[in-house]
C-alpha cells in the first residue's frame, strides 16, 4: 500500500515536472468560473511593423573592443550588456527623406500665413473650432491644399518663405525661416520619486519625517521667438508646481548646413557639393549630412507626429522615434554573431578586392573602394540583422553623451547616459557619441566598437543618422517587418 502510494506520488511529481518543462513560456489557460481570480483582459494591440525598418531582437553583447586597436592603441571600455528589442531604419536617413521634413516645415509656415489677415486671412487653412462651433486648440488644416493658382495675397504668402540672392538673382528657400517647434514630455523625470507632487511619496523610509513644505526644484527647456525673429532657448530652474513642469519646448532651425563641405575641408574645392548635395535630386538616395544632433532629434519628433496622426486610438501604445543609444547601435551593427565588423570576417574586402563598405582604404586614396565622398545608401551588402551601411558612408549620431568611461558608467541592462545640456552649460558637456565611421575614415574607425564624438550643435559633412523605435510590447518581436524598398548590393 505504501509502495503504491509512493509510486503514485513520484509518478504525479514526474508528471508535474514534465508538464512544467514542456510548457515553458507556453502561458496558462484560464478556465475558472465565477468567484475565481481570472484577471482582467483588455483589447489586444498588434504593433504595426514600420516601413523601412528592421526588427532587432533583444539579446546580449560584450560591448567594446577586448583588444586595443593595433594602429591607434586606443582602448574602449568593455562590458557585458543586454538590450531590449527595437526597430531600426535599415539605411541612414537620406536627403530625400530629410527634404520631406524641410518641405513639411515650409508648407506649415505657408499655411500659417495664408490664414493670417496680413496675407488675406483665409481661415479655412487653420482650424480653431470643432464641428459644433466650440473652440479647440488651433491647428493647421492639411487637407486643404496650397493653391496652385494663387491670388495676389496668396502669392505673397507663398513667396514669403523664399529669398533672392541680391548678387546672382537666384531664388532659394529661406533657410533662416525653417524653424520647427515641438514639445516633449519627460516621462522619466516625472516618474522619479523625488519629483512626486505629494511630499509623502518622495521617500518610502518611514523613519524620516515628512516635510509637507519641502520645495522641489526642477529644470526644463523652453524656447520662443523674440521680437527680432530670433530663436531664444533657455533652460530654467523652477519650483515644482505640477505635471506641466515636465513639458519641454524646443524650436530648432532644421535646414541642414550645406556649407559643411567647405568648412570641414578648407583648401579644398568642394563648392560643387555645397551647392548640389542636398538640393540636387541626383543625390536623393545619399545620406543626409550637415545635420546636427539637435536637428536629428527634431526629425525624430516630426516623424513621430507624422506617424501618430494615422494610427487613431492605438497611437498611445506606439513608442516614439528616437536616436539609438550607443549600446543599441553597437549591438545592431555587430549582427547576430557579434562580429567585429558588420560582416562575417575581419577583412574589409573580398578576395576579389571588392570592399564591404565606403571608407578610406589607404592614404589619400579615397576612390579605391569606388567612391570619393558618400555613396547611395544600401549599395553594399547588409549585415545579418538586415542593416545597410553600419560601417562607413557616414558616421551616425546616437542619443548617448560621450564620456571616456563609456559603458562602464552605465547600467548593464539597456545602457544609456543622457544629459540635455543647457545653453549655459560648458561646451565640453555637449559632446555626443558618434558611431560607425564614415567615407573619410580609415579601417580602424569603421569597427562596430569604435567610439568617437562630436558636439551636439556641430554639423559635419561626414555625420548623418538613422532612427530607432522601441517595441510597444515583447510580443512585437514576433511581428514581420514591413517590406522595405529593395536595396541592391553593389559588391
What does the model show?
Helix 2 (about 95-115) packs across helix 3. Strand 10 and strand 11 form a beta hairpin. The protein is globular and about 70 Å long. Helix content is about 20%, strand content about 20%. The strands form 7 sheets. It has a 4-stranded antiparallel beta sheet with strand order 1-4-18-13. The chain is built from 8 helices and 18 strands. The longest helix has 21 residues, at about 1-20. With about 500 residues, it is an alpha+beta fold.
The helix/strand class is: alpha+beta
SS strand fraction: 15-25%
Rg from C-alpha positions?
Answer: 27 Å
Distance between the termini: 76 Å
Secondary-structure map with pairings?
Layout: H1 2-22, E1 53-56, E2 59-63, E3 79-83, E4 86-89, H2 95-114, E5 126-129, E6 135-140, H3 152-159, E7 162-164, E8 171-173, E9 179-185, H4 187-191, E10 217-225, E11 231-239, E12 247-253, H5 260-263, H6 271-276, H7 293-308, E13 321-322, H8 326-334, E14 395-401, E15 431-435, E16 452-455, E17 463-464, E18 468-470
Helix pairs in contact: 2-3
Question: How would you summarize this macromolecular structure in one to three sentences?
Answer:
With 491 residues, this protein is of the alpha+beta class.
Question: Which short descriptors sum up this protein?
Answer:
4-stranded antiparallel sheet; single chain; disordered C terminus; alpha+beta; disordered N terminus; 8 helices; 18% helix; 491 residues; globular; 4-stranded mixed sheet
Amino acid at each position: 500500500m505504501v509502495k503504491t502510494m509512493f509510486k503514485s506520488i513520484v509518478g504525479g511529481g514526474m508528471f508535474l515536472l514534465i508538464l512544467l518543462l514542456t510548457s515553458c513560456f507556453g502561458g496558462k489557460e484560464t478556465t475558472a468560473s465565477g468567484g475565481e481570480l481570472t484577471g482582467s483582459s483588455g483589447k489586444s494591440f498588434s504593433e504595426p511593423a514600420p516601413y523601412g525598418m528592421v526588427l532587432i531582437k533583444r539579446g546580449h553583447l560584450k560591448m567594446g573592443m577586448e583588444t586595443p586597436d593595433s594602429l591607434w592603441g586606443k582602448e574602449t571600455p568593455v562590458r557585458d550588456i543586454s538590450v531590449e528589442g527595437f526597430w531600426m531604419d535599415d539605411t541612414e536617413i537620406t536627403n530625400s527623406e530629410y527634404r520631406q521634413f524641410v518641405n513639411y516645415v515650409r508648407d506649415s509656415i505657408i499655411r500659417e500665413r495664408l490664414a493670417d489677415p496680413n496675407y488675406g486671412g483665409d481661415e479655412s487653412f487653420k482650424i480653431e473650432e470643432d464641428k459644433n462651433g466650440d473652440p479647440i486648440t488651433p491647428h493647421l488644416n492639411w487637407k486643404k491644399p496650397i493653391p496652385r493658382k494663387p491670388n495676389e495675397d496668396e502669392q505673397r504668402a507663398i513667396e514669403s518663405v523664399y529669398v533672392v540672392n541680391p548678387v546672382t538673382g537666384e531664388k532659394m528657400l529661406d533657410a533662416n525661416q525653417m524653424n520647427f517647434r515641438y514639445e516633449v514630455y519627460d516621462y522619466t523625470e516625472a516618474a522619479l520619486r523625488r519629483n512626486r507632487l505629494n511630499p509623502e511619496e518622495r521617500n518610502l523610509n518611514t523613519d524620516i519625517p515628512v516635510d509637507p513644505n519641502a520645495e522641489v526644484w526642477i529644470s526644463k527647456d523652453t524656447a520662443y521667438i523674440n521680437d527680432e525673429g530670433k530663436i531664444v532657448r533657455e533652460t530654467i530652474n523652477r519650483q515644482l508646481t505640477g505635471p506641466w513642469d515636465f513639458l519641454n519646448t524646443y524650436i530648432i532651425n532644421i535646414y541642414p548646413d550645406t556649407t559643411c563641405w567647405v568648412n570641414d575641408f578648407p583648401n579644398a574645392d568642394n563648392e560643387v557639393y555645397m551647392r548640389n548635395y542636398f538640393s540636387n535630386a541626383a543625390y536623393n538616395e545619399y545620406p543626409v549630412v550637415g545635420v546636427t544632433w539637435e536637428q536629428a532629434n527634431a526629425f525624430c519628433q516630426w516623424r513621430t507626429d507624422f506617424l501618430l496622426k494615422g494610427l487613431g486610438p492605438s497611437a498611445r501604445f506606439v513608442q516614439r522615434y528616437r536616436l539609438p543609444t550607443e549600446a543599441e547601435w553597437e549591438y545592431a551593427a555587430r549582427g547576430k554573431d557579434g562580429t567585429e565588423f558588420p560582416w562575417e570576417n575581419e577583412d574589409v574586402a573580398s578576395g576579389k578586392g571588392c570592399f564591404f563598405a565606403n571608407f578610406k582604404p589607404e592614404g589619400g586614396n579615397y576612390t579605391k573602394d569606388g567612391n570619393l565622398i558618400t555613396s547611395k545608401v544600401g549599395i553594399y551588402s547588409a549585415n545579418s540583422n538586415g542593416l545597410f551601411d553600419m560601417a562607413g558612408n557616414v558616421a551616425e549620431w546616437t542619443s548617448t553623451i560621450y564620456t571616456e568611461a563609456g559603458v562602464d558608467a552605465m547600467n548593464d541592462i539597456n545602457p544609456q547616459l543622457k544629459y540635455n545640456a543647457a545653453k549655459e552649460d560648458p561646451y565640453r558637456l555637449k559632446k555626443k557619441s558618434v558611431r560607425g565611421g564614415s567615407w573619410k575614415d580609415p579601417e580602424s574607425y569603421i569597427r562596430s566598437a569604435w567610439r568617437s564624438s562630436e558636439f551636439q550643435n556641430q554639423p559635419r559633412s561626414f555625420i548623418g543618422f538613422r532612427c530607432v523605435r522601441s517595441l510597444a510590447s515583447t510580443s512585437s518581436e514576433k511581428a514581420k517587418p514591413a517590406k522595405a524598398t529593395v536595396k541592391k548590393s553593389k559588391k
